[in-house]
Amino acid sequence: MGALSGAFNDRLASLYPTLALWKQADPQAFLQEVGAQVELIVTSGTYGCSAEVMAAVPNLKAIISFGVGYDAIDMDTARARNIRVSNTPDVLNDCVADLALGLMIASARRIAEGDRFVRSGLWGQQPFPLGSRITGKRLGILGLGRIGKCVAKRAAGFDMDIRYHNRRPDPTTDYGYEASLVELARWADYLVLTCVGGPSTQGLVNREVMEALGPGGTLINVARGSVVDQPALVELLQDGRLGGAALDVFAEEPRVPAALLDMPQLVLLPHLGSGTAETRQDMADLVFENLASFVRSGTMVTPVG
Ligand code: 8YV
Q1: Whether residues 120 and 206 fall in one domain
Q2: Which domain covers residue 204, as residue numbers?
Q3: What is the pTM (predicted TM-score) of this model?
Q4: What interface predicted TM-score (ipTM) does this complex get?
Q5: What's the rounded Cα separation, in Å, for the pair 90 and 282?
Q6: Which stretches are transmembrane (predicted)?
Q7: Which atom in ligand 1 lies closest to the alpha carbon of residue 272?
Q8: Does residue 207 carry a catalytic annotation?
Q9: Is residue 211 flagged as an active site residue?
Q10: Per-residue pLDDT tens for 236-272?
Q11: Would you call 165 a catalytic residue per the annotation?
Q12: 271 C-alpha to center of ligand 1: Å?
């Protein structure tokens, strides 16, 4: 249903009779016509599946999603109608964590800015500003789940001091727990977001949190744009009340606020967290395993609870 790769769609169409909702100029009108024939929906983590789409598919049995985050799927409707949902957890942990570290280093060491400086022929013409060290600095992690733990493991290699905030302390880890997100932000030099999206974290990184992170702090977001109060982020960055940001995700992708584009010190990426050939292949394989399993037995390999 969502914007998945050509190779993925070809593989899907070679195995199952498919209807390409994403190709339709008016998806809702198309669904009114064909919705009753549809039993399974394959979608992406970012496209998800709205209550409106589900309403137009009365015989829907399962939603098989390509992505770990399922915040774009209306889970209340799915539960109420006993529509099964699967996602693609774990296979992308390493690549998302790698990118979080990459964003942190790129931001601190001004890598993207330096690249533009060289390309524009300014090297030798004017000085390039100094960056900041990451080794030994303080890293706060919001959401020490599977991806957050992979971030922590990598950051330990940079001798970073690591603390985290979850709803509850995680008894399986020795990293310091901070019960207050504002206090975690006040302590941290870098605040990395690896929590889930959706209503439970909507706007959690609010003005107060970003002010606590402060002019010496940098926000790294590889989670969901919805976790951050984006207008406040823009304002605090403009005023220098927040030091920096490196963002892979935005509130209304693919739209990025023009004000962010005007700040050269920021690092902005087009939602690349899981975007490596290897991880996308693993995610695709897991989607097909879920699909085959559901068609065969009505069960899924990685169901969403
Ligand atoms: C994908 C993601 O880019 O897994 C997720 O939740 O956001 C990403 O891995 C997306 O699902 C692919 O469209």
Answers
A1: yes
A2: 93-268
A3: 0.96
A4: 0.96
A5: 10
A6: none
A7: 3
A8: no
A9: no
A10: 999 999 999 999 999 999 999 999 999 999 999 999 9
A11: no
A12: 8
